[in-house]
Amino acid sequence: MFRHLQAGLPKDPVYPADLAGLGYFINDKDEIRSIENPKAYFKFFITRNDRYNRLQREAMNQAIRDIIFKRLLKLDMEKILLPFCVAATEPHVPIYISSNLESKKRVIILFYENNQELGVFAHRIIGGKGGINAGSVINMVKYIQSQKTSAVCDDAPGIILANLGELLWWRRGKKAVTIKSWHALPQKSVVEPPYRIDPVKNTITGNRSTDEHVAYIFERVVKELVDPKAKINVIGVSEGANKATEFFDQEENWKRWGPRLEAFASLATYTFASDIKRKDFGDWLRTRGRAYITSEEPCGSFLAGPDGHRRIEAYGCPAFSLGEPYYTETMLANGYKTVIDWFQEVAADTYYANPEFQRYDSYCSDAETEHEDTDGAFGC
User: Fold this and answer.
1) Domain range holding 283?
2) Which tens digit of pLDDT belongs to each residue from 201-218?
3) Pairing between strand 231-237 and 106-111?
4) What is the pTM of this model?
5) Is 27 a member of any domain?
6) What would the pLDDT profile of 216-226 be if each residue is shown by its tens digit?
7) Which residue in 253, 281, 238, 261 sits closest to 346, CA to CA?
8) DSSP assignment, residue 237?
9) Are 194 and 14 in contact (CB under 8 A)?
């Protein structure tokens, strides 16, 4: 019988976590291109060995994260560590907030997908056509900072960028990582299995799950760092949308936060009207909530009312398109202006309620429209 000794196994490759070291640069369109071939974008498959490809991608992602964080700092965004008062070497998850958050009278909170790093929308945009600002939160942050809090307050809204993705703690590296990064952590050799995840040692106190993280954002971050009279707008994407909905659908949470919640944009959610338990939250959602789903329709197109129709589920609020037919991760990157513009519309009207929408085309036949509009509520 033969066996490989540890010393004889192929060593884990190491790639530099900077663009130049990886052979890339940022062109005048803010796109990452190959130094060797400026027409080429990031190349994932550099070898037939998947481990090599994954580690090269992780090095690239780290370089991208560093660039995004530097740009956020220039936009007057501040990084804080959760839980509060934790040392940088202890288990923590980073988030970004407006540096003057305490003075803001309206705050926009983003709960993004649980498989992306903080500040990243879609690597397919960052590493391809569109570039870094377009594929990250940078353009959205700039757009929010150009808006007014309300009709009587010219100050820009505050921003909280939650972090549902990086809830695993890498003890040796002393940093929070995504599950994707976890599988690219340094190993003794190329053939080692991924590290086992300890449910206590490799998670973060008060933020061990996406449920806990959403609760921590409200019960600690908003409660302690935001003006008690400030209104709150929430953007939830995929897991972020589901967990935010579940949070508000609890009696004590809705009693405490419902009066301050001004609008809720739910993107790529898989929570439907039938999943909502509380009538008061459900009633509010019909008037102050909007769902955005994948669709080939132009960005901003109305698709269905709160009760849905044959081709679209009932989300409990009007459903719209953001112009993205396939990828949930690119929805907000492409349609953030539509979402923020709606928030502005709500903020400008104290008595705002979603208007009645009608749609007459291939999505709804005349028979369907006639059947679904008999209650005088939202159309198709």
Assistant:
1) 56-372
2) 999 999 999 999 999 999
3) parallel
4) 0.92
5) no
6) 999 999 999 99
7) 261
8) E
9) no
